[in-house]
Amino acid sequence: MKALVKEQAKPGLWLVDVPEPEIGPGDVLIKVLRTGICGTDLHIRSWDGWARRCVRTPLVLGHEFVGEVVEAGRDVVDIKAGDRVGGEGHLVCGKCRNCLAGRRHLCRATVGLGVGRDGAFAEYVALPASNVWVHRLPVDLDVAAIFDPFGNAVHTALSFPLVGEDVLITGAGPIGLMAAAVARHAGARNVVVTDVSDERLELARKVGADLALNVSDGEIADGQRELGLREGFDIGLEMSGRPEALRDMIANMTHGGRIAMLGLPAEEFPVDWARIVTSMITIKGIYGREMFETWYAMSVLLEGGLDLAPVITGRYGYRDFEEAFADAASGRGGKVILDWTR
Fold first, then answer.
1. Do you find a cis peptide bond into 292, omega within 30 degrees of 0?
2. What pLDDT is stored for residue 266 in this prediction?
3. What residues are annotated to the active site?
4. CATH number, domain at 174?
5. 54 is in an annotated binding site
6. Residue 65 and residue 87: Cα distance in Å, rounded?
7. For residue 66, what is the domain's CATH number?
8. Which structural domain, as residue segments, surrounds residue 104?
9. Is 185 annotated as a binding residue?
10. Domain total for the chain?
11. Does the pLDDT at position 119 exceed 90?
12. pLDDT at res. 50
């Protein structure tokens, strides 16, 4: 089968023929239809410091996908050939304290699909049945392909109650855009999104942001004044991983404000801990999705009319992966999809 492989320990990806994956009694074999390109894939392609530390070559990349089941192992129940499915890309041990308590998203031995084991940038992918999500209701294939990052957005945005709250989102990348759509759908009073890309800020407006602010020529405090906010933001969703973004967010939170932080910083940086303490601000780290509560929430949000179409800005056949990755790396658009049927 064809697959996008990190064949060598240097920048680049290679479209090559590899053996189809084999499945065990508890596994499912899936024909891949669409995949989404993630920031993680960009790191591995560029072979930066994180990739050099965490990835062993050769490796089939990809963890955002939708496909169709072609075979289920003999011990698999409730999943059958022909089912349209996605997959939870965090494979957990099932034995640690958190796994046994039903908190699988907190497993300390998590292995990432397309990072720690071969992934979904291929014509077929194999997964344990316990990691397979069956789409019981019709979902657009492109949207179904990005349930993984959509889940990051939902997990982050719904960490705290949003109804009637003023929400600040720093970072208008694809996950920040989806979080803005969720916050608007969930009843936030004001949704403010910041970034330095005018193209991405325009996408933020399309998904329902009340104010999209370019912080290269304006300040969050200006946005507060424009909206008539006198005490700061109630909820902060930090999606950029940028030190200045978190510092500005903290400086613009109300007393008792709550911050959910998904953006992953490249290195350590100082923050104003005195402000956090005296303003009694809560900061919660977010990683991945709750298994599978977040997946239920995603399906219900879409069923309830949440529209993610504006977030998807690039569609390519898998043979055009170089152009697709360049698009995703540009920092100007939303989500980029690879079609594995053409």
1. yes
2. 83
3. 40, 43
4. 3.40.50.720
5. no
6. 7
7. 3.90.180.10
8. 2-146+308-339
9. no
10. 2
11. yes
12. 87
